[in-house]
Design a protein that fits this description.
266 residues; mainly alpha; 2 domains; two-stranded antiparallel sheet; 13 helices; nucleotidyltransferase; RNA-directed DNA polymerase activity; GrpII_Intron_Splice-Mob/Def; DNA/RNA_pol_sf; Group II intron reverse transcriptase/maturase
Length: 266
């Protein structure tokens, strides 16, 4: 009898990926459907399966952009958007036998939607901006690194911030809104001032540090013995002038705005 036909190499390799399992909290799990979130196989399979969708949208003359399974289609009116959404959903379900996530699908203005962390301004000549959700996530990460509950030296915090933020700006430098990066720089410095104020702890230590930074003795005693909260003190004139941009540059804190302009020039 003839031997059974061997499975194509590509199919076998994909099958091994799908059946390899994932590790969650040190425990290996074997999923019965889908691909692991964030895995390299997911966008590859999306491009293979959704290539037919790309060709269908091109045939219809639609303007669209797709990355993996995330796709935006641009039309002129809301009515046209509802019609296209319905017909494309039917095509995906009927022809490709795939499910459409209705919770994440919508017909809306481009500046009210996001794509890969970006959105648009609502100007007559729209510009690329960072989506609100992306800004919320980066701020949450900065809060974690600059949390007062982490008793680590300021140098370590800045090293951790530099590593994270330089990678982040490397992706989001595509945005046309430099003021966002300038505002984030200022916010990061305020977070670091708060950490330093907590690190100095005792009033006499705060007074000593302020005097060393050139604050007049009266002001140093006034602010060093203040009972205002850490976050409020971090925006005070005395800390804003002494723990300024040049102070943190001496600790090698990198600027998002500076890196943004450097990347835009290349």
């Amino acid at each position: 009898m003839p031997s059974a036909q061997k499975e194509p190499f590509a199919h076998a390799r994909i099958r091994r990926f799908l059946q390899s399992g994932i590790m969650v909290n040190g425990v290996v799990l074997n999923p019965t459907e889908g691909t692991p979130q964030g895995g390299p196989l997911s966008p590859l399979l999306s491009n293979i399966v959704l290539d037919e969708l790309d060709k269908e949208l091109e045939k219809r003359g639609h303007k669209f952009v797709r990355y993996a399974d995330d796709c935006n289609i641009y039309v002129r009116t809301h009515k046209a958007g509802e019609r296209v959404k319905q017909s494309v959903t039917a095509f995906i379900k009927g022809k490709l036998k795939l499910k459409v996530n209705q919770e994440k699908s919508a017909v809306d203005r481009p500046w009210k939607r996001k794509f890969l962390g970006f959105s648009f301004t609502s100007l007559l000549e729209p510009k690329i901006r960072i989506a609100k959700q992306s800004l919320q996530r980066v701020k949450q990460k900065i809060r974690q690194i600059t949390s007062r509950r982490r008793p680590i030296p300021i140098q370590w915090r800045i090293e951790e911030l530099n590593e994270y933020l330089m990678g982040w700006i490397g992706y989001f430098a595509l945005a046309d809104t430099p003021n966002v990066f300038q505002n984030l720089d200022a916010w990061v410095r305020r977070r670091l001032r708060m950490c330093l104020w907590k690190e100095w702890k005792l009033p006499r230590t705060k007074v000593k540090r302020l005097l060393a930074l050139g604050v007049p003795r009266g002001k140093a005693y006034e602010w060093g013995n203040s009972r205002k909260g850490y976050w409020r003190i971090a925006k005070s004139p005395v800390l804003h002038r002494t723990l300024d941009k040049r102070f943190f540059e001496s600790y090698q804190l990198k600027s998002l705005k500076g890196r943004y302009h450097a990347l835009r020039r290349t």
